[in-house]
Please model this.
Amino acid sequence: MTLLFTSKLLDNDSFIASLFLAPTIILIIVLFFYPISQTLWLSFTKVTKFEKNPQFIGFDNYIRVFSTYEFYTIIMNSAIWTSIVVAFQFLIGLFTALLLAQDLKLRSIARGLIILPWAMPGAIAGYLWKFLLDSTIGPFNWFLISLGLMREPHSWLGSPSTALFSVILSAIWKGFPFSTLMYLAAIQSIPKELLDAADVDGAGFLNKLRFIIIPYIMPIIRITLLLTTIWTFNYFDLIWVMTKGGPRISSHIFPTYIYQVAFEWSEFGTASVYAFIDFIILCVFSILYIVQLKKGGIF
Amino acid sequence: MSEEKKIDRRKYIKYVGAGAVVAAAAAIGGYYYATMPKVPPKKILKSWGMVQSAKNVVFALEGANAIFESKHPEVKIETKVFEYPIYRQSLLTAVEAGTPPDVSTIDQIWSPEFAAAGYVEALDDLIAASPEISKDKFFPGAWDSNLYEGKMYGIPFDVDVWEELYYNRDMFEEVGLDPDKPPETWDDLLEYGKALTDPKKGRWGLALIAAKGEFSTCVIDSFIFSNGGDIVDITSKPPKATGVFNSPQNVETFEFLKKVADEICPPGVTEVDEFGAVRLFTTGKTAMILVGGWEQDTFKAQAPKMNWDVGYIPVPKKGQKCVGCFGGWNLVIYKKSKEKDLAWEYIKLLTREDVNYNVASLTPALISPAKEFLSKYRKGADIYFDILMHAKARPLVPQYPRISDIQLDAYHAILLGQKPVKKALDDAAAEMDRVLRG
Model:
């Protein structure tokens, strides 16, 4: 009887499919749904290192967070940080990809060197830029002074008005090679005949860029923009090494602030509020990413 | 579906399933075989510590570990040493994950937090049974820093104090200042600093540590304490900050620090951490620095030819006594340790006078070896010892990390000109009270 039942199950397509999907589904539940649901639960509780049993307090954490200036500062910082980093990574990435797609001498060496910032660990890049931007011994200030663009050294990382933009600069430098590689691969897949035909018709470089290259690689541009947006929004190590979110909270974004609240202050309820809002925002970008993949026929 | 396909599918699933079971069994068996000890295993005693100066702590501990292992041949000590900026987080992660070391040093300011969170063992019974560990051998502030709700949760390992004034004698002479007379008062500090400041030459009077981090809080606290102020009244139930942190003395102190930062320090004080400040001093960018004595090892390593000297922390008015911010490290045993008895034996060894002298990263916590240590390894030993004996501890409350951050945030708001001093301190005191009330 058991053998017959097992035999029937093995003939069932749905059962077989779920057998093979089971390990993946279990992993997703353990690594995704469980932590998210735990975070959501903790956001409605008071729980610290000293009061380890979560105490349900309703929406108190949310009301308190929404009434602080820190919350709106973090949102603003995250929006500025993400939009500028992604925009410039796109522009510089596309520019260097177009350059590397040309038949230039030492092209292969240039392609290898361009990867270096991206390959460098975030913490190392952070310390490098911290030194470069140091207000007294950093070369950045002295370079600008020698060009006559500044009269005296400026504290890039110590001023609230420039700290965020200083870490943005380092993030652009660190991340643009990924965009370069993506766009270079896409550009190289453009049929040569299209570009040759454009040449025959007398099209200049800008026209080729506008009417052939960009439209052709647009799906890759969309996907790359979405991926870099998700990664940039969730950045941690560069900012933490360079400024720890300071001075005050002028360079804090969601991940760095969550880290400080959770692991330095042990206010897990408050940190969970920020973490859940971070998750909601990233969900939006992730859905857009999946839509793009579907449009591209990957799903 | 054809019969042939059904049979193929069943066979396929049988083979895949059987293969998976065999692979899993082989992997598990192989793992256990590889990790199976070939000889009776030694007990492992995991000890974590911190390095804050240029001293090679791991090398120093090897000697102590060899002594311990010769007395306990069944034991192997695994020592791990961390840099200060990552040490606390590494410890907390290990403790919460259930894999703490057996014994470690912790910063004095973490003692109430670790005790309140239930991470570490109370040691009163062990202390009572160990006559070699007695309170009068240690610096008083160091011993008391282990107390939480009347129980002892650690034993002092090493101590130090924020801070002393270090200055470059050659730079003093260059501008006509007497290098045998360092600044004594706040007014002196400003006067000397202005004489030594020449931004066109890339030189400033003082390297002031003010970046985000506990080092900055310690520097502020030494000025607060020297001016008769405090941060939190820990005798109150619950502890309170209003009326204490925003006292008139503290307003005066923070106004002075703002003046110092604006007039005699390089631009961007809020980005200067301890390492950055030392670099400014050793590269001749600043003529003075306020920092702990452990950095003397770093001065010798980074600038062996620099002609530097030591002075007291400048005080508000002549004749007043400077009060440093007491600091240091305590040895604790973790509740989740399976080798608590061995951990206690190890603590007794590390706090033995002759051993403590060699292994302390800062100054030995025992008074007698500390005197000898300071005389041998620290310039200005008398000044150093005097400041140590009269230093005051930071607020020993479990919420101290948050309190420190609030204090620092107020400091930055003042330094950056974002808030007037009184408002910044009032806001900070109110926030501290909210945290202290829980």
Q: What stands out?
A: The interface with chain B takes residues 7, 10-11, 16, 19, 49-51, 134-137, 152-160, 243-248, 260, 263-267 of chain A (CB under 8 Å). Chain A has a mean pLDDT of 90.
